[in-house]
C-alpha cells in the first residue's frame, strides 16, 4: 500500500459528460501529480500541483483541469468526454526525501461509451 | 518523440536465472532514473533508482546500471522469481526535485518456474 488513495476505482460514462477523479496523497506529501495511461502506452504526465498551486503542465487537454485543496487532496476534472479519453488515470505524490521518488495510487479506470 | 524508450515489449526468463531489462533515453538533461514495477489492476510501485553521479545501484536482488555516455540503463534481477512477473517501467527526470517523470512504455517480464 503506497498510502495514496484514489476514488472511484472504476468509472463508466458517456461521451460529452463530465467526471471528477479524486486523489489523496500520502500523509505529509505536498506534491500531487496526475498521469494518464492509455492502451499500450506508458504513463503520460498531465499536471502537477504543489501545496495548492499548479507547478507544471504536461500533455493535458484544455477539456481537463485539476486543483489541489487546502487539505492537499486533489481532483482531476474531465469534461466533454470523448471515446479516446478512456484510460487509466493515476495520481502520485512526493514530498519527502528523495523527492524524485513518486508514490502512485491504484488508479481510476475511466471508460467512455 | 519518445524521450525514454524500452524497446523490448516482453521478456521471458526461467526462475533462478537473470532478468535484464533495458532502457534508452535521448534527453541529456535527464539526471535521475527510476524503475517501477506494475501488477495488473494496481498502480506502479517504486523499485529502485539511480542518480547520474553513479553508474550502479543495488538493492537486494535488483541492480540498476547507468551508462551515461550511451544514454542507456538496465535493470538486473538476480535470481528471478515467479513473483517478479509484472510490467516494468523505466522513468527519467531532470535532477530537479519534484518534477514530472517521463516514462517508457514498459516491458512485460514473465518468469516461469
Notes on the protein architecture:
The complex is a heterodimer of chains A (113) and B (113). Chain A is mostly beta strands and 113 residues long. In chain A, 0% of the residues lie in helices and 50% in strands. In chain A, the strands form 2 sheets. In chain A, strands 2, 4, 5, 6, 9, 10 and 11 form a 7-stranded mixed β-sheet that branches. The model of chain A has no long low-confidence stretch (mean pLDDT 93). Chain B contains no helices and 11 strands. In chain B, strands 2, 4, 5, 9, 10 and 11 form a 6-stranded mixed β-sheet that branches. In chain B, strands 1-3-8-7-6 form a 5-stranded antiparallel β-sheet, with no helix packed on it. In chain B, β9 and β10 form a beta hairpin. The A-B interface holds A 2, 4, 6, 31, 33, 35, 40-45, 48, 50, 55-56, 58, 90, 92, 94-95, 98-107 and B 4, 32, 34, 36, 41-46, 49, 89, 93, 95, 97-106.
Quaternary organization: heterodimer
Question: How does the major sheet of chain A shape up?
Answer: 7 strands, mixed
> Which bin fits the share of residues in helices of chain B?
under 10%
What sort of overall outline of chain B do the alpha carbons produce when their principal axes are compared? globular
Structural class of chain B: mainly beta
The mean pLDDT of chain A is 93
How helix-rich are the residues of chain A, as a percent range? under 10%
Number of helices of chain B: 0
According to DSSP, the number of beta strands of chain B is 11
Total DSSP E strands of chain A:
11
Low-confidence stretches of chain A: none
Mean pLDDT of chain B: 94
Report how far apart the termini of chain A are: 31 Å
Main sheet properties of chain B: 6 strands, mixed
Q: Which descriptors would you attach to this protein?
A:
heterodimer, A: about 110 residues, mainly beta, seven-stranded mixed β-sheet, four-stranded antiparallel β-sheet, about 50% strand, B: about 110 residues, six-stranded mixed β-sheet, five-stranded antiparallel β-sheet, 11 strands, about 55% strand
Amino acid at each position: 500500500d503506497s498510502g495514496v488513495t484514489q476514488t472511484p476505482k472504476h468509472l463508466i460514462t458517456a461521451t460529452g459528460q463530465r467526471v471528477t477523479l479524486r486523489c489523496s496523497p500520502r500523509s505529509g506529501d505536498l506534491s500531487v501529480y496526475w498521469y494518464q495511461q492509455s492502451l499500450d502506452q506508458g504513463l503520460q504526465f498531465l499536471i502537477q500541483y504543489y501545496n495548492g498551486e499548479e507547478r507544471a503542465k504536461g500533455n493535458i487537454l484544455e477539456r481537463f483541469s485539476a486543483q489541489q485543496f487546502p487539505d492537499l487532496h486533489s481532483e482531476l476534472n474531465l469534461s466533454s468526454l470523448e471515446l479516446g479519453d478512456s484510460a487509466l488515470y493515476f495520481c502520485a505524490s512526493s514530498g519527502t526525501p528523495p523527492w524524485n521518488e513518486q508514490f502512485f495510487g491504484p488508479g481510476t479506470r475511466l471508460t467512455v461509451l | 518523440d519518445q524521450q525514454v524508450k524500452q524497446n523490448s515489449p516482453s521478456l521471458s526468463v526461467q526462475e533462478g536465472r537473470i532478468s535484464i531489462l533495458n532502457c534508452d533515453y535521448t534527453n541529456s538533461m535527464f539526471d535521475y532514473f527510476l524503475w517501477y514495477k506494475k501488477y495488473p489492476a494496481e498502480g506502479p510501485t517504486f523499485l529502485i533508482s539511480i542518480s547520474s553521479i553513479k553508474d550502479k545501484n543495488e538493492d537486494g536482488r535488483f541492480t540498476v546500471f547507468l551508462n551515461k555516455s550511451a544514454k542507456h540503463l538496465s535493470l538486473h534481477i538476480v535470481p528471478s522469481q515467479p513473483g517478479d512477473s509484472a510490467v516494468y517501467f523505466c522513468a527519467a527526470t531532470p535532477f530537479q526535485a519534484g518534477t514530472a517523470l517521463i516514462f517508457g512504455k514498459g516491458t512485460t517480464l514473465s518468469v516461469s518456474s
